[in-house]
Amino acid sequence: MSDAIQITGLRKTYAAQGNAPAKEALKGVDLTIRSGSIFGLLGPNGAGKSTLINILAGLVNKTSGQVTIWGFDQDRNPRQSRAAIGVMPQELNMDPFFSPRASLEVQAGLYGVPKAERWTDELLALVGLTDQANAYARNLSGGMKRRLLLAKALVHRPQILVLDEPTAGVDINLREMLWANVRKLNEQGMTIILTTHYLEEAEQMCDEIAIINHGEVVIRQNTRDLLSRTDGKTLVLDTGGPATLPPLPEGVRQERRPDGRLAITYPPSRLRADQILDALRGAGIPILDVATEQPDLEDVFVELTRA
């Protein structure tokens, strides 16, 4: 299947409540997500990401539009479309009196997975909870609870896995374990959809990224092309101390960093690094060391969501 998810004209308007007016959370979203990809869905708070994910999961009813998940139209085949997707939510929602093993068994029963087809022990091993399999969930650490949420999202062997802020508030060891598992699942053919405020994670993990703002998709591109949108590169120079810079071309910015180094950002489409270095040398400014910095996803994100 070439596309794991197809979204056309998706709208969601929340009705007015009390003094709060009606809110249009999604404004005609069109989006396709390739099968087998790791897809980043990014946006500022309130942009519409959670509404979109909840519609995919069947937790929120859309106002209009069409959603197809793994070939199943959400309106015509709601059970099949829900069975094709697993969601690891941001909130730690679990019964504190259930053990991880019991939680997975109950979750599998809710999805109608026959006992002979359940893989509870394998899931516990996958997320590193074998030793805690029979402990009360309330006694698990925050990181262990997040691992359990991942296992619960996988009990029915979905083709698509949604990770909603999966590493919020977790330590680096758990983060590395989570991404190792995600890569393993993706290598086995699972489509991954990731929302995160840690943009460096999205930059490293995702094949493609969509940025949503004010209920609309402002851009969707593969990660490499998205990073190339910002026409800016930075030279970081050690000049041995304060220096009076010569006049620089229009569009070139300078900044003295706390460590004393000079950062000069320029548009590589119009200038070359050697032109800037030659201008500095010509003004008698010593250059003891030089490094370059490429724009990252945060630069692109800020540029596209500034409004």
UniProtKB/TrEMBL annotation:
InterPro entries: AAA+_ATPase (IPR003593), ABC_transporter-like_ATP-bd (IPR003439), ABC_transporter-like_CS (IPR017871), ABC_transporter_ATP-binding (IPR050763), P-loop_NTPase (IPR027417). GO terms for molecular function: ATP binding. Coiled coil: none annotated. It holds the Pfam family ABC_tran. Gene3D superfamilies: P-loop containing nucleotide triphosphate hydrolases. Residues 5-239 form the ABC transporter domain. Keywords: ATP-binding, Nucleotide-binding, Transport. This is ABC transporter ATP-binding protein.
